[in-house]
User: Fold this.
Amino acid sequence: MGYYSGADLPMTHFLATSFAICDHWHASLAAGTQPNRLMAMAGESAIDDDVHVLPNQPLVYDWLNGKNVRWRVYHESAFSRCRRSDAG
Assistant:
């Protein structure tokens, strides 16, 4: 197995020596994916195990809409789209 030195990749070397590197994901809950997604999007989770149908639980987007705060979520994938609070 080979490796690159700081001279080989100066920008990567700069970032690695200047900023914290995280190589582990620590979930909010000791549970599956769906409870942790709810925790990230709501600050709490109404479930503690993966289920096929998520509960009807208020999310941060509902709170923003209730306060008339404009918001957008950008996501890049094969099916890119922008979810937003306003129609315009």
